[in-house]
Design a protein that fits this description.
two-stranded antiparallel ribbon, single chain, mainly alpha, rod-shaped, 4 strands, f41 fragment of flagellin, N-terminal domain, about 65% helix
Length: about 325
């Protein structure tokens, strides 16, 4: 009786060993195919599992920063394009004969008026630029087109020197303007975003910034000069002189905005590159923990197959011995 129990115990032990070895062979085969130790964290040591979680969390966080930087940079690119156009318009206005101190022929004056209206229409379009569902020059009024029609404003302008409103006062061309003294602190708000764990970028350009007010008022005064009744055209020379001065000041301010945008864009590119490099390093570290040595794993599989063959043989012998007792 005791011999039968011992034989049964040996048989069950052999079967258990076979099951374990087959499971190990399956795991090793999967490792060789995937190049990974396992897709389940529970199969790793506590230290390795914790390290992979920390590395993966760092990778995810930096990928998030990259996404933010990409979105912000797309907005900066539009700022760059608009400011380039504004600088060109201002330069053309300053150097153009249409802003001559002496009024020319009626035909030339009419042509100048048409050109100025064209510039104002272009400025209006530029400052109402939209990316996705956001007006980029509206401050925090993302859903509000910030600039009303510039060609329908009073001629001559009803504003007085120095023609510049400061936060929170808004100029006459602002879409929320109804009367002198109107305010909109939101129109001057800039965005602030985290682009790294220790780096925050504040960016954005308001349609109500000084340079734009000067540029718009410069062209409005120039247009008013072309509409000066006469002869003797008493206001023409003064309006044109003031217009040129405002355009020059506006150009200088816009160039400064452009310099800031260029600097921010370059900084974002550096930050994105840094994140990409660090992500590559972290990813490599995760792969080092997960990866298996193909040569070593192949050797283990060969050895295990040999063990399995021996186990199958031993189990077969035990079964044969037990069966012979009943024959």
């Amino acid at each position: 009786m005791s011999l039968a129990i011992s034989s049964l115990s040996s048989l069950l032990s052999s079967i258990s060993n076979l099951t374990t070895q087959k499971g190990n062979l399956g795991l090793l085969t999967e490792q060789l195919q995937t190049g990974r130790k396992s897709n389940n964290l529970s199969d790793y040591s506590v230290n390795d599992a914790r390290q992979m979680l920390d590395l993966s969390s760092n990778i995810t966080r930096r990928q998030g920063f990259q996404t933010v930087a990409t979105v912000v940079d797309s907005r900066l690119q539009i700022y760059d394009q608009v400011l380039t156009g504004m600088e060109s318009i201002a330069t053309q206005g300053i150097s153009s004969a249409m802003l001559s101190a002496n009024r020319g022929t009626d035909a030339n004056n009419t042509l100048a008026a048409s050109q100025i209206q064209g510039y104002l229409t272009q400025i209006e379009s530029d400052l109402n630029q939209k990316l996705g569902d956001r007006f980029l020059f509206a401050g925090s009024r993302y859903a509000t087109s910030p600039v009303k029609s510039l060609t329908t404003l009073p001629v001559p302008p009803t504003e007085v020197a120095p023609y510049v409103m400061t936060d929170p006062l808004i100029p006459q061309y602002d879409s929320e303007y109804t009367a002198p003294g109107d305010t909109s602190a939101a129109s001057y708000v800039k965005d602030s975003v985290a682009v790294d764990t220790t780096q925050t970028m504040t960016y954005g350009i308001s349609s109500n910034q000084t340079g734009f007010q000067q540029l718009i008022m410069g062209f409005r005064l120039a247009y008013a000069a072309t509409q000066d009744p006469g002869p003797p055209y008493a206001n023409y020379a003064n309006d044109m002189a003031t217009a040129k001065d405002l355009l020059s000041k506006g150009l200088a301010a816009i160039q400064a905005y452009h310099t800031t945008v260029s600097s921010q864009s370059a900084s974002l590119q550096d930050t994105k590159t840094l994140h990409a490099n660090i992500i590559n390093i972290l990813t490599s570290q995760v792969q080092d923990i997960r990866s298996v040595d193909a040569t070593e794993t192949s050797a283990k599989i060969t050895a295990l197959k040999t063990q399995l063959e021996a186990s199958y043989s031993a189990t077969g012998i035990i079964l044969s011995l037990n069966l012979s007792k009943y024959l």
